[in-house]
Design brief:
The complex is a heterodimer of chains A (478) and B (235).
Chain A lengths: L1 H17 L15 E4 L4 E5 L3 E4 L2 E4 L8 E9 L8 E4 L4 E4 L5 E11 L5 E11 L5 E7 L5 E7 L4 E2 L2 H5 L9 E7 L8 E6 L3 E4 L6 E4 L12 E6 L3 E6 L2 E6 L25 E2 L3 E4 L6 E3 L7 E2 L1 E3 L10 E9 L2 E8 L4 E13 L4 E13 L10 E5 L2 E9 L2 E6 L5 E7 L4 E7 L3 E10 L8 E8 L5 E11 L1 E8 L1
Chain B lengths: L1 H16 L13 E4 L12 E5 L7 E11 L7 E7 L18 E4 L5 E9 L10 E8 L5 E2 L6 E7 L18 H11 L7 H6 L1 H17 L18
The chains are: A mainly beta (478), B alpha+beta (235).
Chain lengths: 478, 235
């Protein structure tokens, strides 16, 4: 009974407290909400150059710069342990960037001095140098010598990049191609510069020699690299018509070696048809191959009536695959040129315990368009695999691979075109075009960047005059 | 009175417990045996086969592993060996360097290696294999362990011999012609041990692929028995 009385007493006391007048200060000052504008989503800046960003700040209750503290800082996206670098305490950023080459998050903060309330915005910041990502152009100059030109992503041109990095030594006579090897995570990335005289892999960050191509093989192959391709698990080189592969799946051996050539009697066209599965084309037997990783090349079956993929009767002049969309320019014995389209697939059949590679032939159109018969180079973008660009003389035209209709505008340049190639790594709308006067001398060539539109037309985006010889190959280096 | 008697008795017992413990007989608490295949205890093979053919060396050291039965101790122990004259055809100085009379199982160790250097300079080895048979002997420290593992044989020659691990990999049927072609084309011979093969697995797979393609491209090539060597490896 006594306990019940005590409980009643406590409850009554609490009730009394709850009824006490709340004398708290609820005279709140409304926040002056700021809007920060002026920062783009991403910036790419070369080391030791200026990064300037002007911020426009507005507040609901107005904005007075003197009421705020500002700070700009950046932290590495690749190094978790890195300490953020403070860039500026000004409202507008205008600093020389001396950060190491890396990817960063850039942050701007405006903090109200009185309340400590802050507002911030972010952007991606990529700090690059002359040799950071960009396009490599391998060209032929005096005496058949090689020249390497590099244009980075902010359009800084480095001429004679290989010679400069290697004490004036040439990359070799008769250049053939340049390839970026080892794209998978954990794999050593190198650029392979292939010439008929020598084949060298170089450090992508400065073009210094890394090791000769032979150093990537247990048994040195004979011949010159003609093409390279990868599906992210295996990497393939075509050397004088034979395919060589090595494992490059993520975090495999960083410097894995290439196996001896894939067995079989075949003679490959210099194209790796790298879609969701890797196919090759036999320039002699005129058939398509799939390589399952063991037991040699398998001839792809043919389906569809547009052409016989098991024996096309044509040589491949240009070939490219995007996902399952195989596209190629072919020539028959009579010299007639055709555009062919098909679906390339390689399904694993559990019952047969093996892959069933197939080319489903969709279209074959004779190329009768103006200049098509004289075209010397071709390019297709993953942006639209049915747009075929071809260069003849000093012109570039685009044709639909569906119906053969000419698309967009025909581009006419000042000099004959030596090479066209899309950036298939991070900007498939960007077409690299090399022209030269044909003299094959130093600085006789120029490079253009064109942007492809959805109707197939091209618009010039940049021009780099007299930066190379006669270009034989482009390669984008991420 | 009775309590005092039992108390004295208990105290005497304690005194006895403090007497120094002499380690009589403790030093033989262990036995040894050969473990020829160091990686697989269940492999009871007693032989090591080695060929100098294609190796480009005139001597080679075979490390015979000796394993301990029992616990490791904190002092070195003596492992004694002898040559079995009945089973040995190799000649000391001509075919192998003299062995020590004893070796040491180091303190704390459960196994040790006996290095045996064999020599490949005798021209007779081109046509004849020699055998060196080594027996473990009891020592003051160690008894003999598993009776069927106290003898090790090293058989060696300069003739081509099939690597004992041949069938573990993808080299197809063994033939001397195939083996010789490997040495001729690549200038190397198979490693002495399976471990060495595994250490360079990708290299040997590449050699296998290369040699198979050579036989495909030069088809038909016959082996020493007149049988055509078919390409056996398709990458």
């Amino acid at each position: 009974m006594r306990r019940i009385s005590i409980l009643w007493g406590v409850l009554l006391l609490l009730t009394a407290v709850a009824c006490t007048e709340d004398k708290g200060n609820y005279d709140y000052v409304p926040l002056n909400e700021l809007t920060l504008e002026g920062m783009l989503g991403e910036y790419e800046v070369e080391q030791d150059s200026t990064l300037a960003i002007t911020m426009t700040i507005t507040g609901k209750e107005g904005f007075s710069e003197s009421d705020y503290d500002f700070v700009w800082y950046a932290w590495s996206e690749t190094d978790e342990d890195a300490i953020p670098d403070t860039l500026s305490y000004e409202k507008d950023l205008n600093v020389t960037i001396s950060l190491p080459i890396d990817s960063y998050t850039l942050r701007f903060m405006a903090t109200e001095k009185e309340t400590g309330v802050y507002y911030s915005v972010y952007a991606d910041l990529s700090v690059i140098n002359s040799f950071s990502k960009g396009v490599v152009a391998l060209s032929r100059i005096e005496g058949g010598d090689s020249d390497v030109t590099f244009i980075n992503s902010v359009n800084t041109v480095t001429k004679h990049a290989y010679k400069s990095a290697n004490g004036g030594v040439s990359a070799g006579k008769q250049p053939r191609g340049v390839y970026y090897l080892g794209g998978s995570e954990g794999t050593k990335n190198v650029l392979l510069i292939a010439t008929e005289e020598k084949q060298m892999t170089v450090e992508p960050i400065d073009f210094t020699d890394y090791r000769s191509l032979a150093g990537w093989f247990y048994i040195e192959p004979e011949g010159t690299v003609e093409a390279m391709g990868t599906d992210g698990w295996d990497e393939y080189l075509i050397i004088d018509g034979k395919a060589y592969n090595r494992v490059v799946y993520p975090n495999a051996n960083p410097t894995g070696m290439f196996d001896y050539k894939i067995a079989g009697e075949y003679d490959l066209a210099p194209f790796v048809l790298e879609g969701s599965s890797i196919f090759f084309y036999d320039q002699v037997k005129h058939c398509f191959y799939f390589y399952p990783g063991w037991e040699g090349m398998i001839v792809a079956s043919s389906a569809g009536s547009a052409f016989n993929a098991a024996n096309t009767g044509m040589d491949m002049l240009y070939g490219q695959t995007f996902d399952e969309d195989m596209r190629a320019v072919m020539v028959d014995d009579a010299g007639k040129r055709y555009m062919i389209s098909g679906l390339q697939t390689a399904e694993y059949d559990l019952d047969l315990s093996g892959y069933q590679p197939l080319i489903n032939a969709q279209r074959k159109l004779e190329m009768t368009q103006e200049g098509a018969a004289e075209a010397t180079c071709w390019a297709i973008s993953s942006k639209d695999p049915d747009f075929l660009y071809y260069a003849y003389g000093n012109k570039i035209a685009c044709v639909s691979m569906i119906n053969g209709i000419q698309l967009g505008n025909v581009i006419t340049l000042d000099q004959p075109i030596d090479r066209i190639e899309f950036n298939e790594v991070d900007n498939p709308e960007l077409l690299y075009v090399a022209v030269s006067d044909g003299s094959e001398t130093t600085d006789s060539g120029s490079i253009y960047f064109f942007e492809m539109a959805s109707d197939g037309s091209l618009t010039e985006k940049a021009r780099f005059e007299n930066v190379c010889g006669k270009v034989v190959d482009f390669e984008y280096k991420p | 009175m009775k309590k005092i008697f039992y108390g004295i008795l208990f105290f005497c017992g304690l005194l006895t417990g403090c007497q120094e413990n002499e380690m009589t007989g403790f030093e033989k608490d262990g036995a040894v045996y050969f473990q020829i295949d160091a990686n697989y205890w269940t492999n009871t093979g007693d032989s090591v086969v080695y060929s100098f053919a294609g190796k480009g060396v005139t001597e080679y050291t075979v490390n015979l592993q000796v394993d301990l039965m029992g616990e490791a101790v904190d002092w070195d122990r003596e492992v004694r060996v002898s040559i079995d004259p009945e089973l040995t055809t190799a000649e000391e100085g001509t075919h192998y360097r003299a062995l020590e009379a004893s070796y040491v199982l180091p303190a704390g160790a459960y196994n040790m290696q006996i290095p045996v250097t064999i020599l490949g300079t005798d021209p007779r080895m081109e046509n004849q294999a020699f055998q060196l048979a080594i027996r473990l002997e009891p020592s003051d420290d160690l008894e003999l362990g598993l009776s069927y593992r106290t003898l090790a044989r090293i058989q060696f020659s300069s003739m081509l011999t099939m690597p004992y691990y041949w069938d573990e990999f993808y080299w197809g049927p063994y033939s001397k012609v195939k083996h010789e072609k490997l040495i001729e084309l690549l200038g190397v011979d198979f490693p002495a041990t399976e471990d060495e093969y595994y250490n360079d697995y990708n290299l040997w797979e590449t050699y296998c692929n290369y040699l198979s393609q050579w036989f495909a491209e030069n088809y038909p090539v016959e082996d020493e028995n007149g049988n055509v060597i078919d390409p056996w490896y398709v990458n």
